[in-house]
Design goal:
five-stranded antiparallel beta sheet; alpha+beta; 8 helices; Chorismate synthase, AroC fold; globular; single chain
């Protein structure tokens, strides 16, 4: 199976299965000389890990990361960094009833058709459990980018199911299990409790931003940062849509409105989402993703078995009624990996190029939704 490595210069190879002994990744291309410890990575893994509230899967995984290589006396050496996360709370017996059938909306069917074999335990390789190594790799990228450029990443939930979430403040995001930018999440809690009682699931919309992004990262045509951000986000389990900047709202905007006017003090708006021609403007990168409802639910659904005969599927086990609830740190990590890769590519090609416009772009405003 190919397709397990993400990135060009900062390349992350992801390995493992949901119910295997461990999952992890190998990072190739991290510059040497950066102080790095497990503690630098663990914070983001703790934000993503399961079992943190009653609204997510109750699988109890500590997700403790181990650095196996690439760090000597607390500093990166420039050699591959291997990160390992043990699986400690698998309950494979919960999947015994789907050994011979396919969950609607899940990758069960396509994996079986492509490879002629599949690991049904928790979804095997197609499980959202495999996002944990990407969060770990993203934490490494985040640290390097913050040290080099002051670049920071943050995300929040803007909608869960039918409930839109009005943006109040970034300060609220860390204080509730929804990563919601609001002080009162009681309506969200009631909604999720009812959803779980119904044995059903819902989708979500997540917003991710990157601030203090250097001007000039990206490339023309097919290596546009827009394209690679979309590629990265669509690589996250259950993501079905990506917007950059105004996104689909651009359809109803006039050119006189959508085009971000410039002044000596910077850009006046950020409909472009911090990217023009696939190259960063120095404004905040603004990305929004749509996440589909969880496929593993207890509501009976029609399907077929491996012989093509009709059957009914009920998924047991411990599942997120909304996988979007833990998607914010995952999306932040994937955005960080894209920016990191392009920062290294830019440094290799254009390190000596000095733009007289850089101070103007850097002065651009940071827009809240």
């Amino acid at each position: 199976m190919s397709g397990n490595t993400f990135g060009t210069l900062f390349a992350v190879t992801n390995f493992g299965e949901s119910h295997g002994p461990a999952i992890g990744c190998v990072i190739d291309g991290c510059p040497p000389g950066m102080a790095l410890s497990e503690a630098d990575i663990q914070t983001d893994l703790d934000r993503r890990r399961p079992g943190t509230s009653r609204h997510v899967t109750q699988r109890q995984e500590p997700d403790v990361v181990q650095i196996l290589s690439g760090v000597y006396e607390g500093q990166t050496t420039g050699t591959p960094i291997a990160l390992l996360i043990q699986n400690t709370d698998q309950r494979s017996k919960d999947y015994g009833n789907i050994l011979e059938s396919f969950r609607p909306g899940h990758a069960d069917y396509t994996y079986f058709q492509k490879y002629g074999i599949r690991d049904p335990r928790g979804g095997g390789r197609s499980s959202a459990r495999l996002t944990a190594p990407m969060v770990a790799a993203g934490a490494v990228a985040k640290k390097w980018l913050k040290l080099q450029y002051g670049t920071t990443f943050q995300g929040c939930m803007l909608q869960v199911g039918e409930l839109p979430i009005a943006f109040e403040s970034w300060e609220h995001v860390a204080h509730n299990p929804f990563f919601a930018p609001i002080a009162d999440v009681s309506a969200l809690e009631a909604y999720m409790d009812a959803l779980r009682k119904d044995g059903d699931s819902c989708g979500a919309r997540i917003r991710i931003t990157a601030s203090n992004v250097p001007v000039g990262l990206g490339a023309p045509l097919f290596d546009k940062m827009d394209a690679e951000i979309a590629y990265a986000m669509m690589g996250i389990n259950a993501v079905k849509g990506v917007e950059i900047g105004a996104g689909f709202a651009s359809v109803v905007q006039r050119g006189s409105v959508h085009g971000d006017s410039l002044s000596p003090q910077g850009f006046q708006t950020n409909n472009a989402g911090g990217l023009l021609g696939g190259i960063t403007t120095g404004q905040d990168l603004e990305v929004s993703i749509a996440i589909k409802p969880t496929s593993s639910i207890t509501t009976p659904r029609e399907s077929i078995d491996v012989q093509g005969k009709p059957t009914s599927v009920v998924t047991k086990g411990r599942h997120d009624p909304c996988v979007g609830l833990r998607a914010t740190p995952i999306a932040e990590a994937m955005l960080a990996l894209v920016v990191m890769d392009h920062a290294l590519l830019h440094r290799a090609q254009c390190a000596d190029v000095k733009s007289t416009l850089e101070p103007i772009a850097a002065a651009s405003p940071k827009n809240a939704p």
